[in-house]
Amino acid sequence: MEEALYEIASMRVQFAGLSLSRGGIPDETTILNFRHLLERYDLTRQILELVSAYLQEKGLMLRQGTIVDATIIAAPSSTKNKEGKRDPEMHQTKKGNEWFFGMKAHIGVDAQSGLVHSMTCTATNEHDLNQAEHLLHGDETYVFADAGYVGIENRTENKAGITMQRAKYCVENNRRAV
């Protein structure tokens, strides 16, 4: 996150409201301490639920469809720290021919507005399909997902009447399409 805040101006200015000249950017330790504070008091879920309720009240989330996906959040795999250990919440996984170490954010997004309505975080070795039930709010008539969610329609968590669509990568315009 620290690196992204320094390197990506839109993340720094528009998302976080920070400036390189005013007050600086929080370092990795400060961000980690903030994350642990949010986790200790279960604030991330509460904040997301409040924001989602507000957006739905304002008519910005239609809740007819959900896009589900997961992304790997890399973490240092080094043991050169005070404890001499890796972070116990982080794990490694292989994606394609590359190994990754860190966490995975599983995200459910309103298909119409693109606004996030649900999220879970796991170790990277957690399969995407295992978190799918936590990303659906139950009012969907359709769900868009990539290959990581193949077989979801066979799971008991899949609500009756939901149409599952597999998202395909559209190379010519560098975006996902259905």
Q: N-to-C SSE series?
A: HHHHEEEEHEEEE
Largest sheet: 6 strands, mixed
Instruction: List the domain count as a whole number.
Output: 1
Termini gap: 30 Å
What attributes characterize this protein structure?
178 residues, alpha/beta, 6-stranded mixed beta sheet, two-stranded antiparallel ribbon, 5 helices, globular, disordered C terminus
Task: Tell me what you see in this structure.
The structure is a single chain. The longest helix is centred in the first third of the chain and has 15 residues. The protein is globular, with a radius of gyration of 18 Å. Strand 2 and strand 3 form a beta hairpin. The protein starts with a helix and ends with a strand. It is of the alpha/beta class. The strands form two sheets. Strands 1, 2, 3, 4, 5 and 6 form a six-stranded mixed sheet that branches. It has a two-stranded antiparallel sheet with strand order 7-8. It has one domain. The chain contains five helices and eight strands.
